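Is this the right way to post structure tokens for a design question? Let me know if I should format differently. Anyway, here goes:
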């Protein structure tokens, strides 16, 4: 069963959550202050976006964290330990929330990172969030260029999750993939629909409403019909220089930007994120040190 009942995400629920990692405030709201307080706060933040649906809180922890240096294996990433993830899972369960493992692969592969967390993905309340902006090719360094993935690579992850749902008789699993620019997802038609997996595209980017909506329109031109469309808000950056947050009334208008799924599918999804700052980390073994420039991060999201 899902944390608040049932085996299907939509159309019953609206997903609302924070992202980040404890102790690293630059990586998201989830990293600011006590973990349980942040998870409890999600419920309050979600109310303006409920619009008649039940709220299902989401805790998106950055489980594979991109790094500015290659590390011992040359992959430019580190993973949280099982003990660290257990703390997020415990907090999520306490508040009847879904836990998403955010993966920034560096020069690793998404499927490799997903398989590394198989222990957690056996749980009925754990899914994944893929961040291809940080998926680097050979010779590329995180923070220097946007990374990218393909529909086939996304499909490989979705198929793997579908197999787990069937093997362990799990409720639907959430698979989010973030997209900040059109080039970040290539040949998206390679992503196919898989039983038991809810695919969600979260359109990234910060700034005033007009450019955010334009990015939403552009990157959703290639979105497969079964994928639910979403976006993020950065509560700090979006309001700088006189900017305003996109509110629920504007969110509804986004439905005209793309073809929605069929009537048998879930309604269109929206993600909302909170802030973006330079990524910092501590050492090759910790996600909290070793800073490098031009690394946008995000804090919270809402989807519908």
């Amino acid at each position: 069963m899902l944390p608040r009942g049932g085996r299907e995400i939509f159309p019953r629920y609206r997903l609302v959550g924070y992202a980040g990692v404890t102790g690293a405030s630059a990586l998201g709201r989830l990293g600011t202050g006590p973990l349980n307080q942040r998870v409890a706060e999600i419920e309050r933040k979600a109310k303006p976006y409920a619009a008649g649906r039940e709220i299902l809180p989401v805790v998106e922890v950055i489980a594979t964290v991109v790094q500015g240096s290659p590390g011992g294996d040359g992959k430019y990433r580190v993973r949280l330990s099982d003990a660290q993830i257990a703390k997020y899972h415990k907090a999520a369960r306490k508040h009847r929330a879904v836990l998403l493992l955010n993966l920034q692969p560096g020069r690793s592969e998404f499927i490799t990172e997903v398989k590394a967390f198989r222990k957690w993905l056996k749980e009925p309340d754990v899914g994944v969030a893929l961040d291809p902006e940080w998926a680097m090719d050979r010779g590329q360094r995180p923070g220097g260029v946007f990374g990218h993935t393909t529909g086939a690579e996304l499909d490989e992850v979705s198929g793997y999750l579908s197999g787990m749902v069937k093997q362990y008789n799990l409720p639907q699993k959430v698979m989010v993939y973030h997209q900040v620019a059109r080039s970040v997802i290539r040949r998206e038609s390679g992503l196919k629909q898989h039983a038991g997996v809810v695919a969600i595209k979260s359109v990234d980017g910060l700034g005033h409403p007009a450019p955010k909506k334009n990015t939403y329109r552009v990157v959703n031109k290639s979105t497969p019909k079964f994928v639910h469309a979403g976006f993020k808000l950065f509560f700090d950056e979006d309001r700088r220089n006189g900017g305003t947050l996109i509110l629920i009334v504007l969110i509804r208008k986004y439905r005209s930007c793309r073809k929605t799924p069929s009537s048998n599918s879930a309604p269109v999804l929206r993600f909302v994120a909170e802030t973006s700052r330079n990524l910092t980390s501590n050492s090759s073994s910790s996600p909290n040190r070793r800073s490098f420039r031009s690394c946008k991060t995000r804090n919270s999201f809402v989807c519908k």
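Format looks fine. Someone answered above. Worth noting: The CA atoms of residues 188 and 217 lie 15 Å apart. The chain has seven helices and eleven strands.
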